[in-house]
Amino acid sequence: MALKVYAHPFSSYCQKVLTALYENNVAFDYCVLGASDGKADAELAALWPLKRFPILLDGDRTVLEASIIIEYLGLHHPGPVRLVPDDACAALDVRMMDRFFDNYISSPQQTVVFESIRPAGNRDPYGVAQARAMLDTAYAWLDERMKTREWAAGGGFSLADCAAAPALFYADWTHPIDKQFANVQAYRQRLLARASFARAVNEARPYRSFFPLGAPDRD
Ligand SMILES: N[C@@H](CCC(=O)N[C@@H](CS)C(=O)NCC(=O)O)C(=O)O
User: Fold this and answer.
1) Which pTM was predicted?
2) What is the set of domains in the chain, with CATH numbers?
3) Ligand 1 atom closest to Cα of 13?
4) Spatial distance between the Cα atoms of 127 and 91, rounded to a whole number of angstroms
5) How far is the CA of 113 from the centre of ligand 1 (A)?
6) Residue to substitute in 52, 118, 211 for testing ligand 1 pocket (most ligand atoms within 8 angstroms of CB)
7) pLDDT single digits (tens) 23-48
8) Using CA atoms, how far apart are residues 69 and 24, in angstroms rounded to an integer?
9) Whose CA is nearest to atom 15 of ligand 1?
């Protein structure tokens, strides 16, 4: 039975999983959320009441959370690109960086974006200032780390880079990566040039008007 992925092309966490799928040419049925018939959305709600996406369906097994989906693919539908290294110590470094991108780039980036669509009267300027400060600190830390690296962890492209790609893509739109962080900017460009992520970005182009802060005319 074909794998099913419930996802939306413009969602950063979906792009993280799509990048992993495209890296290894994994075949899957793409259940696109937000379609006018509402079918995929109803199926998602039945499978996962929190309705967060992406999710993966493999037969009768539902797999939640982008990182876990990528780990699951490596175990059950492996391809030539090992996104989580077999070596346990190397895998730990990959997972550490995966957590870094989700927790300290994606989360504050989403805080800033969601603020812009909150109803007036429910705004949280203090929380947004904290989120922007976290992004600045995270960019500075990552810049040091990327001084000597091509990819975020270990020698090759990994789960950590699948997390980094959409995180840095949207973070730069939300809270621009200052030019003093040239290593982060260069890494973001390498990620954009990676065929798997470039495909995810291209598939999301028709939805750029969805970006609440206004998508810049680049990338
Ligand atoms: N921790 C989840 C986060 C997933 C997530 O927040 N997805 C967003 C789209 S990028 C979503 O479901 N948004 C819908 C909502 O918040 O209701 C993961 O890693 O998969």
Assistant:
1) 0.98
2) 3-76 (3.40.30.10), 88-206 (1.20.1050.10)
3) 10
4) 33
5) 13
6) 52
7) 999 999 999 999 999 999 999 999 99
8) 14
9) 52
